[in-house]
Write a structure and sequence with these properties.
Elements (H helix, E strand, L loop, with lengths): L6 H11 L5 H14 L10 H8 L3 H13 L2 E3 L5 E3 L2 E4 H8 L4 H13 L13 E4 L6 E4 L3 H10 L6 H4 L14
Antiparallel strand pairs: 1-2, 3-5, 4-5
């Protein structure tokens, strides 16, 4: 059986991924090309992820991978996946990305939010960065469904995020008494 990827996807990944010298990003590019291959000359859906991946810094790639590996994932009754936010202390963030520059990290979070890799903000009830006003500085991070899909495809997985995380929808328990 011969697998191939859509030529446009291969071209974009080769052009953009070949300039990358960070191991985390190289693995993500390799996963994206692997998930692009199929029996019928490939699907071009992974083009959606190329521009996002080429604009990720290696710190952002580490953050994205960490939160997608450690957030609680859930699925709704239609099969759409979403994540609960994760709370990280500043020291944990320093350990994850290996950078101890608070303002640089905040800029990374802000950019990830503006490119819709991190969800919402306090007005929307979602988490997207540092929580201000607490005694101990911490971040609340929640990947968007698009970020989750990027993560899954960059792992080389061809299926849906629901399949990757092996999730099934369960009806909420109705606590009302009749």
């Amino acid at each position: 059986m011969t697998l191939s990827a859509h030529p446009r996807v291969v071209k974009e990944i080769m052009e953009n991924g070949s300039w990358c010298d960070d191991e985390t990003l190289q693995e993500m590019w390799a996963g994206l090309i692997a998930s692009s291959c199929d029996k019928i000359n490939g699907d071009d859906i992974n083009l959606l992820f190329v521009n996002t991946l080429k604009n990720l810094t290696f710190n952002q790639a580490k953050i994205l991978n960490y939160i997608c590996e450690n957030c609680q994932m859930e699925v709704d009754k239609h099969g759409f996946i979403f994540a609960e936010h994760i709370d990280l202390k500043l020291e944990q963030i320093y350990e994850i990305i290996g950078v101890q520059d608070l303002h640089k990290i905040d800029t990374e979070f802000d950019n990830m939010s503006s490119t819709e890799l991190l969800n919402g903000g306090p007005l929307l009830g979602h988490a997207q960065g540092f929580v201000f006003g607490d005694n101990e500085l911490r971040a609340q991070l929640e990947p968007t469904p698009f970020a989750i899909a990027l993560y899954v495809k960059s792992r080389g997985f061809k299926g849906t995020p629901k399949e990757y995380y092996q999730l099934e929808y369960t009806e909420p328990i109705n606590k009302e008494k009749k």
